[in-house]
Design a protein that fits this description.
2% strand, 62% helix, 9 helices, single chain, 185 residues, mainly alpha, binds iron/sulfur cluster
Length: 185
Amino acid sequence: MRNHKYLFIITLGFFLLGFVNIHFALLGFLCMIIPFVLLFRTKKKTWCQGYCPRASLYTACGKGKKWPSIKTPKFFINGNMKWIMLTYFGTSLFFIIMTTIGVARGMRPSMEYLRFLIVFPIPFSMPQLYPAMETVPWVTHLSYRLYSMMMTTTFLGFLLALIYKPRTWCTICPITTVSDIILKK
Ligand code: SF4
């Protein structure tokens, strides 16, 4: 089964919706939940094989590029890179959860801006075309942090697709690494 070629519109739509209202970023949790729901139901990586909008974006990007791909380094396929990425993802998720709890308990202010790779603030204030959504500060904080993580990983995958084969990100994507661990068990 191959990813539907127009699924990448969902990825683009996700990032555009962040400009309408940042709270739409919470939809990003679906990209972490649905792959595992399908995995447990079908006992295979159904999401990766047929429904992942991000993979569709990388495939489209690979088709559009006008230069040859460099051979994917071995440490991406069989080496430590996937564990490094899983560690980044785990750390990022831990950071998101702990800071969100901190905001909910009034121990820290809500961070309402984007960050790249957890720590680098992006000097750009996201326009909010429809800002009128009544929420508590921790939800806004969680939305910005989740959007930042999705933006970082999508950007890295996009960069890899431009340099190497289109779906190089899939060799180190934390979703596939965790799926493989579950399937082995
Ligand atoms: S490995 Fe990651 S990016 Fe690739 S298809 Fe699976 S979930 Fe999508």
